[in-house]
Design a protein that fits this description.
With 554 residues, this protein is mainly α. The chain contains 24 helices and 4 strands.
């Protein structure tokens, strides 16, 4: 390859400037047309194949010599600067015109044309390389959405098939060819195009994307993740949401779903739109989908993110491959996305979503949280709940109370349900996970059973009963001594803690492990065993009087 002599006037690409923008400015500075500049370059043996994507090393060297700049600067003006983050250019060969198919098959790859920020062009006339990335949808500098189509010719910007450079040079005119041949171009001034302010959520997502494309880490599910891993997770989760957004009922989940329908109809084939190959063309719609996915990935932990994804995965249609098969067939399951989908499809999250969104007769049953015990009484369990789960009775009774709390409109998680019943939030989450996995009846049947059970529970303020038992810890044990003298002579004074725990479990119907009578506030295996021994030793009269003793003055 013959070395290309430097041009009389040299300028270097500005930070973020695309190679075609730089070449157009370089041609203008030297009094050349863009066609003359490309001819000058090709006459030295340099190929312009994949010029904007990843030109051959010889082309990069010739351009660097032509503009008196470094080869790294030239490379950074192409999409190759995003190889390994927003793009995977593995297999691309500038000498093989068919090699782009390998890159395109990975999806979301730049095609003909680019997006623009009209305000950026009006400000400095520089076209940015990142505008070609489909994962980029907004300009954080001007806080506006990018524009994908010229209002003059109704085509993507830089949609010329026979040249990488526009005949209009560095001018802010569109320059797309009109009709056959290059003689007529669209003269619409791109700097005058109306822009739309981007919502804060979309700008926040774009800011995270801007960080990730540089290779810097981004927080995903509360943990730092590499830029490439985050961008892959974001793209594939967005793809999944786009597919789910075409299912019935999706309009309730996001405002942008309704705007997706026209593009879905335009792209529908035998299997529907292939969002994994190419996302929506309109930046506003693509940005909204990316923001929805980023909101999930930006959750503080897997539990929270899965709860946010569950309403989406509930839209999965019934197929022979099953829900997970359908979901996996619509996107690439990265390690993060696999964990997220499996967690979102977990039985306790699906039941949680059902209780939140399927009130009987369209109106939630009025729920008084203080009238729900921490543990549904044994009799109501035996009458209504037995056989619904392959779990222990006490676990099922506690879970039933949590489910009743979930029917309250202000309770949106198992942890919130537990806290509403004066239990630690972690206890609610663990109980829901353990119990939901062993459910033997449908969600509809379980809801019917817990509603029947709560109607049989004596209506009273269980939080007040719990507080009364806690208060007795700080009073004299005269009531206990009187009970012992009349109904259980010989019982040691130290057994007062077991008596209080019995009232806690059988009168307040609260959780055994949370009894305020445990020494040091924590239960032990030995303590539970000794309490069970005391509990099993009581006859019917002793139990009746011990319950009645709670209502006597201490």
């Amino acid at each position: 390859m013959t070395a290309a002599p430097a041009l009389p006037i040299s300028i270097s690409p500005r930070d973020g400037e695309s190679i075609e923008s730089w070449l157009e400015h370089l041609a203008d500075a030297n009094g050349l047309t863009t066609a003359q500049l490309l001819t000058h370059l090709r006459s030295r043996g340099a190929s312009t194949r994949y010029l904007t994507l990843a030109p051959a090393p010889g082309t990069i060297r010739a351009l660097a010599e032509l503009g008196r700049t470094t080869q790294d600067t030239i490379r950074d003006a192409t999409l190759a600067r995003f190889d390994g983050t927003a793009l995977d250019l593995t297999g691309l060969d500038a000498l093989d015109r068919h090699s782009y198919r390998q890159v395109a098959s990975r999806g979301w790859t730049p095609a003909h044309g680019t997006q623009i920020c009209p305000l950026c062009l009006a400000e400095d006339g520089v076209w940015r390389t990142s505008w070609r990335l489909l994962i980029v949808t907004a300009c954080t500098h001007h806080r506006t959405l990018l524009v994908a189509e010229c209002p003059g010719c109704r085509r993507p910007f830089r949609d010329q098939r026979h040249s990488h450079l526009r005949p209009v040079g560095a001018a802010t005119l569109c320059g797309n060819p009109l009709g056959a041949g290059p003689t007529r171009q669209c003269q619409h001034d791109l700097a005058t195009i109306h822009t739309t302010t981007a919502p804060d959520e979309i700008l926040a997502t774009q800011a995270r994307i801007d960080i990730a494309v540089t290779g810097r880490p981004v927080t995903v599910l509360g943990e730092p993740a590499g830029g490439a891993a985050y961008l892959a997770d974001l793209r594939h989760l967005t793809t999944l949401l786009l597919h789910l957004a075409t299912q019935p009922g999706a309009k309730q989940l996001a405002d942008w779903v309704g705007d997706l329908q026209p593009e879905t109809q335009r792209r529908t084939g035998d299997r529907g739109p292939r969002w994994g190959m190419r996302p929506p063309d309109y930046p506003a719609l693509r940005a909204a989908g990316l923001a929805s996915a980023d909101r999930i990935l930006g959750a503080p932990d897997l539990h929270t993110a899965a709860a946010m994804l569950t309403p989406w995965t509930e839209l999965t249609p019934a197929t022979n491959d099953g829900p997970l098969g359908w979901l996996a067939d619509r996107t690439v399951m990265t390690p993060t996305l696999s964990r997220l989908v499996l967690s979102a499809r977990a039985p306790h999250r699906r039941l949680s979503h059902y209780l939140d969104t399927h009130p009987r007769r369209g109106v939630r049953m009025p729920i008084n949280l203080v009238a729900i015990p921490q543990v549904i009484p044994h009799q109501q369990y035996a009458d209504h709940l037995a056989g619904a789960f392959d779990s222990g009775e006490e676990v099922v009774r506690q879970f039933a109370s949590l489910c009743l709390a979930r029917l309250h409109p202000d309770i949106t998680s198992w942890a919130d349900a537990a806290r509403a019943l004066d239990m630690p939030g972690s206890m609610g989450t663990c109980c829901a996970r353990a119990c939901s996995a062993t459910r033997l009846v449908t969600t509809q049947e379980w809801e019917k059973r817990i509603r029947a059970a709560v109607t049989d529970v004596r209506p009273r303020n269980y939080r007040a009963t719990e507080a009364k038992i806690e208060h007795r810890l700080h009073l004299t044990s005269r009531w206990f001594q009187e009970w012992v003298r009349h109904y259980r002579p010989g019982t040691r004074d130290t057994s007062v803690s077991y008596a209080l725990t019995w009232q806690w479990v059988h009168v307040a119907h609260a959780h055994l492990d949370l009894s305020p009578a445990w020494q040091g506030g924590q239960t032990t295996a030995k303590g539970r065993a000794l309490y069970r021994q005391f509990e099993n030793s009581l006859n019917d009269e002793q139990q009746f009087e011990l319950a009645y003793a709670l209502h006597k003055r201490a």
